[in-house]
Amino acid sequence: MINVKLKYLSDKVSRPEYATRGSIGMDLSAATDSSFILRAGERALVSAGIAVQIPKGYGGFIFARGGIAAKKGIVLANGVGIIDSDYTGEVKILLENISNEDYTIKSGERIAQMVFLPVEEANLVIVDQLSKTMRGSKGFGSTGK
């Protein structure tokens, strides 16, 4: 288990928590002054009301919550949000409504989840040729339908 420092930036925020003992993602809530409508097809940058300090060698990753994505079409516009270990600013969540219906984001509503994972820096080695593999340069869809 790693220690991640947490700073509250709003009194509207709910403490990030694991929903169950087996959860790997901590739920993040909307820390807004009031509810707002996320119109169909639109995006909004929503405050989580917190800042974190993540140890070097780890990253924070923001993922959509499966239920709200499947049932309401509320997803992360950037797929996965990344919090670098040297970033200590406010955590914000870029939501997108991919449904055909407007959705009201309520203050305090759980809108995303945050996972902490180990990461390594890569040392890029310039070469003239890459090692042969079974797949080689076959791209999208090359291993199945």
Your description of this structure?
There is one protein chain. The protein has one helix at residues 66-72, and strands spanning 5-8, 17-18, 26-29, 36-38, 43-53, 58-64, 74-76, 81-83, 90-97, 103-105, 110-118. With 145 residues, the protein is mainly β. A hairpin with a 7-residue loop joins strand 2 and strand 3 (26-29). It contains one helix and eleven strands, in the order E-E-E-E-E-E-H-E-E-E-E-E. The chain has a five-stranded antiparallel sheet with strand order 2-3-11-6-8. Strands 1-5-9-7 form a four-stranded antiparallel sheet. 5% of the residues lie in helices and 39% in strands.
Give, in order, the helices and strands: EEEEEEHEEEEE
Largest sheet: 5 strands, antiparallel
- Order of strands, main sheet, comes to 2-3-11-6-8
Radius of gyration: 19 Å
| Classification by helices and strands | mainly beta
- Backbone shape: globular
Overall mean confidence score, pLDDT: 94
Strand content: 35-45%
| Residue share in helix | under 10%
Spans of at least 5 consecutive residues with low confidence: none
DSSP helix count? Answer: 1
**Distance between the terminal alpha carbons, to the nearest Å?**
40 Å
Overall strand count: 11
